[in-house]
């Protein structure tokens, strides 16, 4: 990592898109620039759950502006994360490549609990270093994240699919605010939180903290209108309720501190915050400016050092699923050597292959038969801190492909780099089948279009007939999908 590098985080939320750029000096972040676009992407979902053309166009235009500001930064210094609307939109897979082209960088669609983890990291870096147990609440545009932790240690993370945009559209679609509508919105939000009460009630924490737009907006309104002296209080929320009910419509709500871009989503955000206060028995909530994008920046710093959370996740999964670490290391080392001989200078691909090799046997804890399918399912669907959904899907595909027929990969667009990683992992598991340290002959491995070449000592092959037979089967497996593996 160069001295004084510049890094950037892009937060593609359901209400707004944000870009934050910072300089890293001895592990500390010094903000350089920030941009915000109130895209309200969550409101761009049609009745079928797909993003409308207008919503897509507005998002593309915002991302293009971000892309200009990011131009020239190395890809490893930029991390873009997309949240709830990208998670739920039916046509997200079609829209995502267009969005990435406009931004000029990959976009990670992150799971709700990963979003919660990053939010807590951002909040923790902006709060005093105390041993108090905290409840951090982030009411976004499409989801609400709840986290308990102390200092930088996280105890529990949850994500609930309700946000200020989605709740405002659902219960106040025309902007009309009535006591019946508000009561219905609060009741629905309480229902969403009911199952989380045992893990997040007031006995599990000592201090409640709100972060992101809704919490900061409500706190500003309460303080600037003398509804609350500091932060968000139950008394202040009751006064705010009376005020917005008296107004009767979002356009008629006149409050100090209420920005124009927050006005349409105020009633939905208020209903969710009130439900949090009621269900978790919160009396007072402080507010911090540290949020998702700050967490992304600090996590990016960790990825470029020895503190990559993904490594800890891999180790935790190995322990949880009783993976043999020595076998995983054997396979990872050999697969890495074979991959680098086929593909030069691809650190990202090599790192992904290493993690796949470390986790390729997690499914054995379920069943020995077809364990690779169980492994792939776990990696695809489990919560893996530090990993995006795309990263998990790539890991799952590598693990699924490491044994058995290759036709199960279907018509997925797989490039030569990924095919090389698949072959490297398959060969490594073949050569390491004895699960002991063995002396292998000098291996030469090359990749070229749809043909792979593996050269090794013929005398060694004669002395190891089981491996020789497995390599013959491997040649047939590649031939069955129209690709060629030559073993000589």
State the helical fraction: 40-55%
Largest sheet: 6 strands, mixed
Which term fits the overall shape? elongated
Q: Which percent range describes the beta-strand content?
A: 15-25%
What's the rounded overall pLDDT mean?
91
Oligomer: single chain
Report Rg: 26 Å
Per DSSP E runs of 2 or more residues, the count of β-strands stands at: 14
Termini separation = 41 Å
> What structural category arises from helix and sheet content?
alpha/beta
Number of helices: 19
3D structure, described in words:
There is one protein chain. This protein is α/β, with parallel strands linked by helices. It is 48% helix and 17% strand. The protein has 19 helices and 14 strands. A six-stranded mixed β-sheet has the order 8-7-6-9-11-10, sandwiched between helices. The chain has a five-stranded mixed β-sheet with strand order 3-2-1-4-5, sandwiched between helices. Strands 12-13-14 form a three-stranded mixed β-sheet. It is elongated. The two termini are 41 Å apart. The mean pLDDT is 91.
